[in-house]
Please model this.
Amino acid sequence: MKIAALLGGYLVSRWRFIRHLAAVAAAVAAASFRRGTFRPTVRNVLARQVLFTGFEAVRFVSLLAFLIGISVVVQAQVWLVRAGQAALLGPVLVMVVIREIGPLLVNFVVIGRSGTAIATELGNMKVSGEVRILDSLGLDPFIYLVVPRVLGVVVSVFCLTVLFITVSFGSGFLSGVILGANTGSWRFFVRSVFGAVAPEDIFNLLAKTIVPGLLTGVICCVEGLGVSRAITEVPQAATRAVVRSVTALFISSVIISVFTYV
Model:
């Protein structure tokens, strides 16, 4: 009975946390379309969040995409040509890079770089009393702190994923040419890839960038603002934010893939 009680209490607490995340995500989405939300101060926070999360990660994401293009795209070209299945080049690359690797790795990068930073920053603000000061000045902490950070993460994940796919395909094709993978001209390569992109692939790409990005931003903000007055809780909140963001990333990716392709 004790085990059943502990299990039931754990499940109830997890369900309450999930409902809380869903409520915060819905509130962020509603505030995004509300007139008067994006005042100059909020736009400034949003721009700085996109700068840190998106622009400053361009070099690392490009390097990662370059290496993935060399390792994955080149191998696909070489082995499909050897097997006499060059016509499958586009579908294979779409399935591997666009559907799975691109969104997954970019979300990992954003969680590692920005997820911890958001949770730590908001946790320090909560401990130092800055959140109460903002409230006393008439600034809604939710609008000023949460909304622009969540939207900045979503926009950055989408843009970085598009960059990742573009760089990986480009580096893969050029590396294949250098290594002698006879897959035809670059026009054939582009037609093969874009010809294999179906409407469900576009939906999958949008969903796997918007939904995990939204969940990452919400989880990190909730964990950061959830600390009390002890400074020692800040690193713990950052750790929980990363773990729960990664868990949400995998769960949402699986659900989206099943919903889209099964």
About this structure: Residues 38-261 form one domain. The mean pLDDT is 86. The chain has one domain: 38-261.
